[in-house]
């Protein structure tokens, strides 16, 4: 890792990273909207932004003076791996100027003949830092052995063999933080400020929060459900 990417990684320490992502089927899809979302996150105190797609990465880098962690979500017919699955997506993010590039760090089969090792080798030779999105402790240890800059617990609950649970997998986070020498980022299903604090106390280098801050269609649901509950109770009692 070069000095620049080392400094960027260090700037994340004990901070909140906000994931600003909206897929094509989501109401807030589009680089301009995601750039405004990133400005709002920066105003709120985020120290870095995680973003999907080269266009969003470019727009966000123009809008805020924060490091950007880039991914490209792309589905291929021959693989379940969809977060920066091949060298093609990795190159798109390098061209877009992502400071840190995150990718599926599991050992699942990738599209084409691409391997995890190839992606990490490309990033190691690049100016960007690398972040392996893992779902188990074994994957975290393996990614570290391949020379990644950091790992993130992003994929816990999203691979068929990892622990499936509603909230964040803080146990995986704690174990990885104890065993690895590189930074371990907490990411996935963190929805309360107290969980951010808990993750940092358990050894997280930094914490990523996405949906709980940047997906208003999901944030609305529990409020609407609370109103619906009252409505149903009242109607039932009338
Ligand atoms: C599994 C997967 O595809 N995770 C994606 C990775 O970038 C995003 O959809 C998540 O929003 C992000 O990881 C943050 O997590 P949460 O939105 O739960 O705070």
Can you characterise this structure?
By secondary structure, this protein is α/β, with parallel strands linked by helices. The chain is built from 10 helices and 8 strands. An 8-stranded parallel beta barrel has the order 1-2-3-4-5-6-7-8, surrounded by 8 helices. The model has no long low-confidence stretch (mean pLDDT 97). The chain binds N-acetylmannosamine-6-phosphate (LRY). Residues 19, 21, 50, 71, 83, 154-155, 158, 187-190, 208-212 line the site of N-acetylmannosamine-6-phosphate. Converts N-acetylmannosamine-6-phosphate (ManNAc-6-P) to N-acetylglucosamine-6-phosphate (GlcNAc-6-P). One of its GO terms (molecular function) is N-acylglucosamine-6-phosphate 2-epimerase activity. Keywords: Carbohydrate metabolism, Isomerase.
């Amino acid at each position: 890792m070069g000095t620049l990417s080392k400094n960027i990684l260090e700037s994340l320490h004990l901070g909140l990273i906000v994931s600003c992502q909206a897929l094509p089927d989501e109401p807030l899809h589009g680089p301009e909207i995601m750039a405004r979302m990133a400005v709002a996150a920066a105003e709120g105190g985020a120290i870095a932004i995680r973003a999907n797609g080269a266009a969003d990465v470019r727009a966000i880098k123009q809008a805020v003076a924060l490091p950007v962690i880039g991914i490209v979500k792309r589905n291929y017919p021959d693989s379940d791996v969809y977060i920066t699955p091949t060298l093609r997506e990795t190159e798109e993010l390098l061209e877009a100027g992502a400071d840190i590039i995150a990718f599926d760090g599991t050992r699942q089969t990738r599209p084409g003949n691409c391997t995890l090792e190839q992606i990490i080798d490309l990033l190691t030779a690049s100016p960007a830092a690398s972040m392996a999105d893992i779902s188990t402790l074994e994957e975290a240890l393996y990614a570290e052995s391949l020379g990644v800059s950091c790992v993130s617990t992003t994929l816990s609950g999203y691979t068929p063999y990892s622990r499936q649970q509603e909230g964040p997998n803080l146990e995986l986070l704690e174990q990885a933080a104890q065993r690895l020498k590189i930074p371990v980022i907490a990411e996935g299903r963190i929805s309360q400020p107290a969980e951010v604090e808990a993750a940092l106390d358990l050894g997280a280098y930094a914490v990523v929060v996405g949906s709980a801050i940047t997906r208003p269609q999901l944030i609305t649901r529990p409020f609407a459900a609370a109103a619906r509950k009252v409505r149903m109770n009242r109607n039932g009692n009338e």
